[in-house]
Please model this.
Amino acid sequence: MPAIEFRHVSFSFDSQPVLVDISFELEQGEMIFLTGVSGSGKSVLLRLAMGLIKPDAGQIFIEGREIETLTETELLAIRGGLMGMVFQEESLFTGLRVYENAAYRLEEHGWTEKQTRQAVADVLAFVGLQGEENKLPEELSGGMKRRLEIARALIGWPRIMLFDEPTMSLDPIVAIQVLDLVIRARDINHVSSLYVTKKIYEIPQLANFRASQAEDGQVVITRAAPESLPKTRVFVLDNKGIAFMGTANEFQESDLPVIKELLALDRHDHSKDIYFADPWDKRRLPKERLL
Model:
């Protein structure tokens, strides 16, 4: 069954339609990129999928369960175990240390201290924050805070992830680290995901690179061969609906005016892109952090 399914979903703010008659399926192991100009409803769609807001019409299913029929307790269980979300805005608890920020979702859902300790160790290692457990958010760099946000969303390894512009406001080097984490979660942990972005250059990066794990456990990220590309699609939201649905290549080659507008706004200098197989390669860090 699909990881997420929308059937003729509509939503309005103060009687102003935001999304009208939206239907799609997110397949298991698939990544769907949601893009469009500001105000096109991308973040609203994620919050509908998470059950944080309710549609005015239509049905939303999470792995076959219609979320409108679930109790608040059942919804919390889905958000706590089946799904994770990385928000645009910083949402760390400033008074809690790294360990506690990563662990709080598990503690809310009845995990034992031993299970929680192991899960936190695993996810902090995954995002490269092992050894930082006792620091407060104010002691972390912007990139480390964003990695902690991702760790908190990935704790317990949910099967579905929602990413709402996770690289917004990050410098290019840190943004590449975050994209690597997204790729690793998708390919190594088989996460199904909706990924919202206005940075159009992120789409080919995520659509054409794949993570693999060697027998010794080392994870490498390489450009995928055409026959082994990850399962991805691009949706463009415009005029309250899905204006385009297709592959990353079809998106790049489309003549739709809304896509031409998005591509024209992509001023990223791709000629200066640097690829590192190791997400934590020291050449990616500012010189003052190499000491």
